[in-house]
Design a protein that fits this description.
By secondary structure, the protein is α/β, with parallel strands linked by helices. It has helices at 2-26, 43-50, 53-56, 69-77, 89-96, 144-155, 175-180, 193-200, 209-213, 225-230, 232-251, 254-261, 270-282, 294-306, 316-319, 323-329; strands spanning 29-35, 59-65, 83-86, 103-110, 115-119, 135-137, 165-167, 186-190, 204-208, 219-224.
Length: 330
């Protein structure tokens, strides 16, 4: 009888614990996040998801990929998502159009351009002058990749409108296909496409736009000002989880990071993911903390001015909220 009572007692405790766990899981705060594209460039975000860092903060993050900055911002403005992961320049565009509820950048994910210059033919001794007279397949006009690309070309004394044939009317999703089909002598590509092309002999990485353009808030998490105010606890938890993931990526090997994020890149070999992660880590593309610094913001707007895409500058304090990032970094 004593054995039976003891067994019954532990059975009741087990049921209560399972019920409590189920309740806790049910009570996780849902956060809808939209990323502008799926990219190894965003490795810390996937690490935070896979390692359960968001759940540790009481959050259930629903991630969706929305192709294009315009569509991502439309989803954010229409409350289709709570948080957007997109280039910081989009918050400036929205503000200059007169948004009633300003979009603010609250956590930085990447701090350099993430694209690479890929040549159709192998070049042993690359020089930027080789682009003169060539056909350059660039990114969408007004987007950060294209603006950073033009900034780098000008830095090396190349006028994008005079010294080469610039193609930038091809949709982002079709740029790689167009190059593979024979369009252009050079192309500006993100990873892992650049490394895949190199592996398959379709092109060769000859330079990094990230190392050439300097630090800038290339990709940040942003939300409506009202959301940051009304859901401050949720935003803080989200930023805390991101900081843990950033620390993990900085500390762990590229091989370990690649293994963790592979589920998000099912058609990419894990060794290739490792190569890409190592490349981004070595050039300092992953932000070490979520704080968006004023110097980076100023560099962003300088690049936009150089591209003729910035009618007027927007103050750092107006569109950057570092409250959550600084607390997470403490």
């Amino acid at each position: 009888m004593r054995w039976f009572k003891r067994s019954l007692f532990f059975s009741v405790i087990a049921v209560l614990l399972l019920s409590l766990a189920a309740c806790n899981k049910h009570e996780l705060e849902k956060v809808k996040v939209g990323e502008v594209t799926r990219s190894i460039f965003y490795a810390p975000q996937y690490v935070a998801l896979e390692k359960g860092f968001f759940e540790d903060e009481g959050l259930s993050v629903e991630l969706q990929t929305i192709a294009g900055g315009d569509k991502t911002m439309t989803a954010l403005l229409s409350d289709g998502i709570d948080i957007a992961l997109v280039g910081s320049e989009t918050s400036i565009y929205v503000t200059l159009q007169g948004a009633n509820d300003p979009i603010q950048n609250f956590a930085q994910l990447t701090q350099t351009d993430g694209t690479f210059l890929v040549a159709r033919d192998k070049i042993d001794n690359f020089s930027w002058d080789l682009l003169k007279g060539s056909t350059f397949l660039g990114q969408r006009k007004g987007g950060m990749p294209q603006m950073a690309g033009e900034f780098v070309l000008k830095k090396h004394g190349i006028d994008p409108t005079q010294d080469l044939t610039l193609i930038q009317n091809i949709d982002f999703a079709n740029i790689a296909t167009a190059f593979a089909s024979g369009t252009g002598d050079f192309v500006q590509l993100f990873e892992p496409t650049a490394s895949v092309f190199e592996k398959e002999g379709k092109g060769y990485i000859v330079a990094s736009f990230g190392t050439e353009s300097g630090h800038l808030p290339y990709t940040s998490f942003m939300a409506k000002s009202s959301y940051l105010k009304d859901e401050s606890k949720t935003v803080q938890g989200f930023t805390n989880a991101l900081k843990r993931a950033q620390d993990f990526v900085q500390k762990e090997s590229a091989a370990e990071v690649a293994k963790i994020i592979q589920p998000y890149f099912e058609n990419v070999d894990v060794d290739l993911i490792e190569t890409v992660v190592e490349r981004y880590k070595s050039q300092g593309s992953y932000a070490t903390d979520p704080i968006l610094e004023k110097g980076e913001w100023d560099n962003l707007q300088t690049i936009m001015e150089e591209a003729g895409e910035l009618p007027q500058r927007v103050d750092y304090e107006e569109l950057v909220n570092t409250t959550f990032a600084k607390k997470a970094a403490e």
